[in-house]
Amino acid sequence: MSDETKVAEVVGEIIPAPPRAQAIAAFKTEPPRYAGGSRVPGWDDPVDLTKDPATIPDPATTEVPAELRAEIEDLMTRYPDPKSASIPALAAGQRLHGWCSPEAIEQVACVMRVTPGYLIAVASFYDMLDTKPVGRCRVYVCTNISCSLNGADELLDAVKRELREGDDIHARGFECLGACDIAPMASIDGVYVGPIALDEVPTLVDQIRKGEDPLPDKQLNKRRSVDPEANG
Ligand code: FES
Fold first, then answer.
1. Is residue 74 part of a domain?
2. CA atoms within 13 A on the CB side of 80
3. CB–CB of 194/182 below 8 Å?
4. Of 53-62, 136-145, 146-155, which gets the smallest average pLDDT?
5. What is the CATH number for 113?
6. Is this model's pTM higher than 0.90 or not?
7. How many distinct structural domains can be found in the chain?
8. 55 part of a folded domain
9. What is the mean pLDDT of residues 126-150?
10. Which DSSP state fits 215?
11. Where is this region: Disordered (predicted)?
């Protein structure tokens, strides 16, 4: 007796079995993993204990772009403890410099009055903050359950295959991005797009390459809301 039939008997009716074997087979497809078992390379790089302890960067000698300083100062006013602004402040530094480079970390640390080491500890923990240069545009293809069952691994492969040498695009798999209803989906520098068909991938990558709006008709933020007040 199959599992599906047993379940049907428990609830007292005979119902057609769902395509369970198909779903399990899709779920079991092994995602690529790096040494240590992670999907994210370098997350467990050891700290360099030979370096001198860092100090808080001196504002007199650390040049911080005015816009970045203003953004970080504004972020710091939003929390009871200004240090709580570390993640969005690092994200602001990353947007400006392309990654959490030593220069970006130094500038953020200078404005926040913390050591670069404090911020590196935060940046190296959070998946969306890059402590190595990866590419200006970040394409996160969700490979979590809803997206996996709708072909996310094939989508990620197709996006990677479409990239050319010299493209400043970082495409990678990501855990649930919270938009499971548009699976399979991807975040293009924070713009949610989905469901993405495999034959739309060449257009999508070309639009990203040219700095155009990615698949405008598939963007989550352009969907109409059931709340008429929310539609512009
Ligand atoms: S599983 Fe992909 S957005 Fe949730």
1. yes
2. 0
3. yes
4. 53-62
5. 1.10.10.1590
6. no
7. 2
8. yes
9. 94
10. S
11. 210-232
* 3-state secondary structure at position 192: strand
The closest alpha carbon to 194, from 204, 207, 206, 208, belongs to: 204
C-alpha of residue 141 to centroid of ligand 1, in Å: 9
Q: Among the atoms of ligand 1, which is closest to the Cα of residue 148? A: 1
Residues with CB under 6 A from ligand 1: 142, 144-147, 176-180, 183, 185
Q: Which CATH number do you get for residue 145?
A: 3.40.30.10
| 12 phi, psi to nearest 5 deg | 85, 20
Distances from the Cα of 169 to the Cα of 59, 138, 176, 177, 210, angstroms: 34, 6, 21, 19, 11
CA angle 159, 162, 164 (to 5 degrees): 125
- Beta pairing, strands 137-142 & 191-193: unpaired
Number of residues that this document lists for the chain:
232
Segment 154-201, tens digit of pLDDT: 999 999 999 999 999 999 999 999 999 999 999 999 999 999 999 999
Using CA atoms, how far apart are residues 168 and 80, in angstroms rounded to an integer? 38
Find the Cα–Cα–Cα–Cα dihedral 158, 174, 34, 148, rounded to 10°.
-60
